[in-house]
């Protein structure tokens, strides 16, 4: 009797890359980005508690072009992770699991992310915060 071979797990050489795959990967990446954002929030609280000089240094760092770029990335990460999380919640209730709906919800995640991020940053610019 010939022993049965266990099935091979699919990998990138087998799967054709598609939008829902990208959305899933970016959901995980933005989750990691939000952990980095939590560290920045902790650094903000520590600098605030450390006195005016330390806080001024922190504000100068976040106000630099690199700091603004990081904050923009965190804003994108927040809204993408939020939208993808809502999408997964809808899936948990058994809706939107067919291919057409899954693709449409991927586009919706990207659209919401772009619109919400641009709205927040436009408001920040108009308010003079950035």
Question: What does this protein look like?
Answer:
- The protein is an all-alpha fold and 130 residues long.
- 77% of the residues lie in helices and 0% in strands.
- It has 4 helices and no strands.
- Helix 1 (19-49) packs antiparallel against helix 2 (52-63).
- The longest helix is centred in the first third of the chain and has 31 residues, at 19-49.
Using DSSP, what is the number of strands?
A: 0
What is the SS-derived class?
Answer: mainly alpha
* Total helical elements: 4
What are the low-pLDDT stretches, counting only 5+ consecutive residues below 50?
A: none
Distance between the termini: 72 Å
**SSE pattern:** HHHH
Helix content: over 70%
Q: What percent of residues are in strands? A: under 5%
Instruction: Report the average pLDDT across residues.
Output: 93
Which outline best applies?
Answer: elongated
Radius of gyration: 21 Å
Describe the main β-sheet briefly.
Answer: none
